[in-house]
Amino acid sequence: MQPIKGRGAQSGAVPTRFGLAQREADGDWRDMAPDIDGAAPPLRTTVTEEFPKSVLTFNASPDIPFDRSVNAYRGCEHGCIYCYARPTHAYHDLSPGLDFETKLFAKPQAAALLRQAFAKRGYSPRPLAMGTNTDPYQPIERDYRITRKVLELCLDVGHPVTITTKSARVLDDLDLLRALAARRLVAVGISITSLDPRLSSLLEPRAASPAKRMAALGTLVEAGVPAHVGVSPIIPAITDQFLEQILMDAGALGVRSASWIMLRLPHEVAPLFREWLDTHFPDRAAKVMHTVQSMRGGKDYDASFHTRMKPQGVWADLVRTRFRLALRRAGIPQERLNLDCSQFRAPSRDGQMDLF
Predict the structure, then answer these.
(1) Residues with Cβ < 8 Å from 263, sequence gap 6 or more?
(2) End-to-end CA distance of the chain, in Å?
(3) Number of other CB atoms surrounding residue 48 within 10 Å
(4) Can you give the pLDDT at residue 348?
(5) 31 has pLDDT over 80
(6) Is the Cβ–Cβ distance between 209 and 224 less than 8 Å?
(7) How far is CA 292 from the centre of its chain?
(8) Which end of the chain is more exposed for a tag (fewer CB within 10 A), N or C?
(9) Residue 95 and residue 306: Cα distance in Å, rounded?
């Protein structure tokens, strides 16, 4: 199979879970197209603006450390093949594959809607998570600046916020992050999957290079912004070899906490990932999936609460041991950061702050 350059997914099939009509290019035309029309044009990214009634999402999951989040965008141009958010595109009758990384949705009014949520009587603040579904600093943030507007709001009302990203573009908002950090209102996590730029270009074709992400961590530390490195996801026989060096490099920069997450393959992500393996790593595809299944009860994925984030088995135990030893050698103390919720002052519904 000829790889699709610059994209993570290698196909655009819609899911069968919801009974959507299947889309398939005509085989005879597809076979003849290169001779008649030449190479297919590159896929272009399109952005649709949407205007929901609310953007603040609450959850009661026992597996994640936050209870509320906001996502400025749907879909993500980074194109990470392993992204667990891909299946959400099916709600738009779109493909979790190529559509997820080429047909994006932006919420220009996100900050205004969030202000309304903060102004509601009885609202009680807890850290607001950004980057839990799609990356808040994906390329279109350069033009929309929705994430920046949300950070401006959090600074204005004293609301704590956490950020998870794979982009060095987070430094575009270093002024706000520094101001938030001075008040213990922010923490930033940067995910680094490998240290090989070629491998990253296959896994995460439009995310920042590993070197840029590592440098961004150093800049955040120097600016006094609490910075966290996430070695995630760990993909057996593909990225696990970089675990120790990622932690060593992050520790040398002064990063004070780290975490790891094993590869997760919910719903349509599993066949997309298998397709990616067959395209780029056919020599080890069977080994990778066998190892993944050995940690998930013989399945590609186990979505059960309390187990989906905790892989089991010998291989998972080995990674836990390696991570623990690497932390110690890297000098990362695993400091627990408690963001300050006491500074929150609810805005009035017209956008002004209440005096009392």
Answers:
(1) 82, 233, 234, 235, 236, 273, 292
(2) 65
(3) 11
(4) 83
(5) no
(6) no
(7) 20
(8) C
(9) 29
